[in-house]
Each structure stands twice: as structure tokens, then as C-alpha cells.
Amino acid sequence: MQLLFVYVDIDNEEEGKHVADYFGLTKDTPKVLGYTGEDTKKYILDKAVTLENIKNDVDVKIVVGNNFDDIVLDESKDVLLEIYAPWCGHCQSLEPTYNKLAKHLRSIESLIVAKMDGTMNEHPRAKADGYPTILFFPTGKKSVDPIPVDADRTVVAFYKFIKKHVSIPFKLQKPAPSPASSEDSLAKQGTKTSTSDKPVSSPTSSEDSLAK
Predict the structure, then answer these.
(1) Residue of 147, 150, 131 lying closest to 196 (CA atoms)
(2) What is the pTM of this model?
(3) Among 130, 145, 147, 148, which is most buried by a count of CB atoms within 10 Å?
(4) Residues 194, 90 contacting (CB under 8 angstroms)
(5) What is the pLDDT of residues 65-82, one digit of tens each?
(6) Spatial contact of 152 and 203, defined as CB atoms under 8 Å apart
(7) Which among 46, 41, 81, 33 is positioned nearest to 61, based on CA atoms?
């Protein structure tokens, strides 16, 4: 995957006007835009243009040393945190599953799915025995040690773990019907990213809102 950063002068008639028209922008304030070439999706940052907002206008929130307390130890949020290393092969294998989980749960206001580069950041409340280390910080229990996540590395298994340990219960809204079954998609996501031969369980009624 290639990531490009581009600055465009919106007053430039040859380039800026075309970009503004494509994204439906006016010239009133600076905007941060995103575009994915594979599925041609467009994203517009609708918050103040600050480094913190740019980094965290995503499904998986980025945690660093100086925002750990604000994000992970926020007493109004249940937080799932992955501590990873950029060079770790297991972390790279987990990333698609972790991103899919965060995408499914992005509408839950009381829940945050986050990750932190353990090679560049540290915090006394987030100790990694290896990479990846996944910890759960429930609301109302931020003063005690987090719960190690020992679930299988699948979307369904992570979802079951979160539902079991959250302090603030939640329900996922059922998506609009689509030609392709989301349940089939979720079942495919149940394929383990690790090398374990342990069988993966099928979604039960407690995961209906996620599977449908």
C-alpha cells in the first residue's frame, strides 16, 4: 500500500478548483481530505485541523504517551487497546481483523478501539509481555490493572470478549439489507490470523446484531 500526502491550493484554477468540485468544498477554511484509490471512497475531516484530530479521525484510535490518559483512561469509555511493534509479523497479520472489528463497532459511543506503538511509547498502565499485547480497560475500573485479552484473533471472538467485559452494555444497529449477506462476510472474518489449530466457533444469538 502506498500513502501519499498532497497539498493543493484551492485558489489554483487548474488544480484546486477540480479538487474542490470533486469533494464539494468551498474556499472558507482549510480542509483535510482522504481518498482511497481501490474503492474510491472519499473522507473529509469535519473537525478542527489539528494533529490530534487528524490522527484520530479513524476507526482505530492512535494512542501515544501524551494522550494515553485522555483516551485509554477516560472513565466514560470502555477501551480495547492493542500494543504493537511495526516490525512484528503477528501484529501485521492481526491488523486487517482489528480494523474490521473497529469498523463494526465505530457507532458505539461508549467504546473505543485503539492501538499504540509499544516501541515508541510507554505508560505504566500498559505493559506488553510481547507483541501484540491486547488489553481491555473497562469503564469504572481504570484504577486497577487492565484485562488481558486472551480471545482468538477473530472479529467474532473479540466481539464476544468485549460484550462480556464492557461496563456499558451496547447494541449494534442492524445495517440495511444488502445483496451480499453480512453474516457470510463475518463468518469469513472468523478465519484465524494465528497459526493455532483450535476450531473457531460460529456466531450465536448474542452476536446477531453484528452478524446480520
Answers:
(1) 150
(2) 0.62
(3) 147
(4) yes
(5) 888 999 999 999 999 999
(6) no
(7) 81
